[in-house]
Inverse folding.
């Protein structure tokens, strides 16, 4: 039996801002609920501490970088240590497009923040579906 | 160095696959927002990973404490790679062994045991901060 195709969804750590919290929670929602069979998450700092497994995965499987802010740490880390990302999502830009700004504190999202995380998770899942569709022969 | 005005930087790992990373993060927030708000600060570990100049300057010029979820010790190792002044480090997996009644299970949103463990870790970190600010050995 063939195993399900995998995509790495890598979130920024973003401990200093609420956009980071939204990135992490959305990534977990994709892993747990939306695309559990197709998603692999990787801790971003493992790229720089020389973990070969993380670097190799991102080298040979498509990855989606989910970044909270314009510093784009995730996209830059993947491309520095492994290879080009399949897609890059900038959470702060999406939140602006969606007109969302009262998301709660970085430590614990409020109701609007949780809704934003769910919406972002749907966005990530849609990007995954698009990558799979384009990779079919 | 003036211990009272110079904040200690508490860096958490970015663990996303197991409860330990979420617990490390909650413990960090508990220290910097509740227990030792005036004496500490934090920043994103991702910034250190990518060599952000401001983040590196921050950890080089302040005492730092790492809170790591697992034995990979990403926070501690990235601080060391950045030339930080590492004053202490803690690992969630080690501290969990002291509280065998606690069985944290959830990752995205911490369960009650995860929150209790985070608080216990934060209290240990706060005591270490007090020791450092009294001039104890980093």
């Amino acid at each position: 039996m063939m195993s399900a195709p995998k995509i790495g969804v890598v979130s920024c750590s973003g401990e200093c801002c609420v956009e980071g919290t939204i990135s992490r929670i959305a990534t977990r929602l994709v892993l747990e609920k939306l695309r559990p069979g197709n998603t692999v998450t990787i801790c971003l700092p493992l790229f720089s501490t020389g973990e070969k497994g993380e670097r190799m995965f991102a080298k040979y499987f498509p990855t989606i970088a989910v970044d909270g802010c314009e510093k784009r740490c995730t996209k830059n880390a993947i491309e520095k240590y492994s290879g080009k990302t399949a897609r890059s999502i900038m959470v702060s830009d999406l939140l602006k497009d969606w007109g969302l700004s009262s998301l709660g504190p970085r430590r614990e999202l409020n109701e609007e923040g949780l809704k934003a995380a769910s919406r972002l998770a749907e966005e990530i899942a849609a990007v995954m579906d698009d990558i799979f569709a384009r990779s079919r022969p | 160095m003036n211990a009272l005005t110079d904040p200690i930087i508490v860096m958490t790992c970015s663990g996303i696959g197991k409860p330990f990373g979420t617990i490390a993060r909650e413990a960090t927030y508990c220290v910097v927002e509740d227990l030792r708000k005036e004496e500490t600060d934090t920043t994103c570990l991702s910034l250190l990973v990518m060599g952000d100049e401001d983040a590196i300057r921050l950890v080089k010029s302040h005492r730092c404490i790492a809170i790591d979820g697992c034995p990979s010790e990403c926070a501690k190792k990235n601080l060391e790679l950045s030339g930080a002044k590492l004053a202490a480090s803690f690992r969630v997996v080690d501290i969990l062994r002291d509280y065998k009644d606690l069985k944290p299970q959830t990752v995205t949103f911490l369960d009650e045991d995860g929150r209790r463990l985070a608080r216990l870790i934060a209290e240990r970190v706060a005591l270490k901060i007090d020791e450092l600010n009294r001039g104890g050995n980093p």
